[in-house]
Amino acid sequence: MPDETPSFKLFSGKKYIMDCKDGNDCHILHRCSAGGKGGPLEIDANKQVTDGSSDVTAIGLIKSLSFLDRFLALWIVLAMIVGVVCGYFIKGLPQAFSVVDIQGTSLPIAFGLWFMMWPVLSKVRYEMIFKMFKQRSLWFQLTVSLVLNWIVGPLLMTGLAWATLPDLDHYRNGVIMVGLARCIAMVLIWNQLAAGHPEFCAILVAVNSILQIILYAPLALFYLKVVSHQYTGAGEFDLKFWDILRSVLIFLGIPLLAAIITRYSLIALKGREWYDKKFMPLFGPLALVALIYTIWVMFALQGHQVIENIGSVFRVAVPMLLYFTIMWVGTILFCRAVGVSYEKAVTQAFTASSNNFELAIAVATAVFGITSPEALAATVGPLIEVPVLLALSYVALWLHKKLKWAK
In DSSP terms, which residues pair with 102 in a beta bridge? Predict the structure, then answer.
């Protein structure tokens, strides 16, 4: 696959830091003051930085995010707090959300779960999968990604969940479900911020989007029933393969199909430039709005349980924090050791360390119930992931400048 991404040469100390390979459509990466200190950083999703000499600041990195993305962790915390308060003081709230249900999930919540996934999946460039098969140089990278995402990641999250939550069975299982869901949403943002390889990231996201429909249910059954020996039917609940698969098909399959139809029908009618620059900036933020809405509903329905078990809720953050950090650092070190370029190494790291918390929330809600500890544990996922991986985006840029990388 030819590299269609223009490369940039960075010149420090000038008013603008930019230079495009073909001389056209240059993008200002960094605006310098008279003293040469950095201002806001802008990173084009279709371009990558190929030199580590830019003076990137943490403030500039954060400012490059959209308003919703920049304060996502804050919105999640506020949604949790408001939800708990509403659930604790407003009587009859559960009944209001359970008038009509789909697969045991109330219709208003189902809409929230669908809209968490639909806009995100509409960003994915599925056509990149076919380009990947034409380039054997990417086969090794894809193999590494599949091993990290579908073998190492779930195994590590399960081990950390057991090590830190041995006495909290249901919360532990919710954490394991987060570890089984591979990231297809926020990884696009982290990769963009850290100047990773955009086309390689598009390939990995497209592959993981499809593999989750195939692999999530059998992996969940294996790690929850076989490894953890939970939900075997000996107790109060028997976890069945069809229950998980049906939830995946409803809450991932339906928005995936809708996203593919949306993407390629609108591109055919209006063109790719209109789709990327006009439609997605309006449609894309609906995913974060739906996420915040869903979190508010879940915490509203669990207001009493959250207050009574606040210590357990905080403990759920421990294995997730360890997972994001260990997985990211380990992947970066491995990729650098085997001679992978910075752009592809950082893409591998964020793809392996991120998780599709939207899917984990949807499946946990549908299978175990919206007021279950499993669903509550899955909901804590984005609160931990967003600030940790945002910080790691800045660490990646710092490592880009400090270390020597393969070309």
Answer: 105
Using CA atoms of 317, 197, 397, 34 in order, give the dihedral in degrees to the nearest 10.
-130
Cβ contact 19:27 at 8 Å: no
- Would you call 31 helix, strand, or coil by DSSP? strand
CB neighbour class for 186 (10 Å; exposed up to 12, middle 13-18, buried from 19): buried
Whole-model pTM?
0.76
Q: Residues 130, 210: contact at Cβ < 8 Å?
A: no
**DSSP type of residue 233:** S
Residues whose CB is less than 8 angstroms from the CB of residue 306 and which lie 6 or more positions away in sequence, other chains included: 80, 84, 87, 299, 313, 376
Question: Rounded to an integer, what distance in angstroms lies between the CA atom of residue 355 and that of residue 262?
Answer: 24
Domains observed in the chain: 1-64 (no CATH), 67-402 (1.20.1530.20)
Q: Identify the burial level of 395 via C-beta atoms within 10 angstroms of its C-beta, where 0-12 means exposed, 13-18 middle and 19 or more buried.
A: middle
Give the H or E element holding residue 102. Answer: strand 101-102
Least confident of 41-45, 65-69, 184-188, 228-232: 41-45
Residue entry with tokens 């809209």: 115
Is the model's pLDDT at 363 over the cut of 60?
Answer: yes
Residues 175 and 323: their CA atoms lie apart, in Å, by 10
d(CA 99, CA 89): 20
